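Dear Dr. L.,

I hope this message finds you well. Following up on our conversation about the binding site, I have prepared a predicted three-dimensional model of the protein together with adenosine-5'-diphosphate. For your records, I am including the exact sequence and ligand specification that went into the calculation, followed by the structure tokens. Please feel free to forward this to your student if that is useful.
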Amino acid sequence: MSTVLELKNLSFVYGAGTPFEKKAVDDVSLSIEQGELIGIIGHTGSGKSTLVQMLNGLIKPAQGQVLLDGRDIWEQPKKIRDIRFRVGMVFQYPEYQLFEETVYKDIAFGAANKGLTGDELDQAVRRAADFTGLRPELLEKSPFDLSGGEKRRAAIAGVIAMDPEVLILDEPTAGLDPMGRELLLSQIINYHKEKGNTVLLVSHSMEDIARVADRVLVMNRSRLFMLDRTREVFAHGDELEKIGLRVPQVTKIMQALRAQGIDLPDSVLTVDEAFDTLSSLLKREGKIW
Ligand code: ADP
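The resulting structure of the complex is given below.
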């Protein structure tokens, strides 16, 4: 494995030198390996959005460095725009940024700015639409004629079409209905599997994070609180609760049963896993066959 992103003593201050000065990210150091899917969690205001905005050069650190493939992204400030093609960012409610006449043009916008033309651009648009589950016939429609979920997918496709090495998604499923959430999440999983590139997913949904993340980064009060394998992080339910977070419901139930002395692992992440664990326990005890 090779390191794709390295953060060195990264800090960011809003309103520096004013009475409203706020250190939103404080001395964060960590490394992310190529191909990892990292979940980012933390209470509102803990610094998640500020942190990820520094990773694609949207805002400049007050202190510290962001290394992409070993090079400081601010090494040549004039070329910071190129970093935004390499580290693709999908903001919260990205559908508000759709503005072209057709969905096709909207998806093509970033990739065309990156320099793609002709067939190459066309393929990038169609593949990105496919990754996000947008039917080809929607491409010629106006983005304003799409449903909420489809608009969201079109906006995500616009970033995927740029073929970024790192894809950052800030609350991608927020505001979608359960079906829409499920669909989008499985598309993100597929994209990550097929492309094998690095994905950072900021989410309030512990269930989503537990399902998809290899490792989880926990922010608390502008600082890095924890970064570990997903199972390890969710085994620390008490510590997470102290900073206003929770573990997935199913993890909590299993932890409560374990506290009653039942022989169960300390971190069960999904309903399917809980089902398997409980069935094998009941079989072992001869309660079911
Ligand atoms: P999160 O994404 O975890 O909710 P943010 O990175 O948005 O956290 O915010 C971190 C801190 O920085 C919060 O205290 C927030 O109020 C403050 N903050 C965020 N954006 C701004 C801004 N544009 N101006 C001033 N303060 C901000």
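In brief: The longest helix spans residues 178-195.

With kind regards,
A. P.
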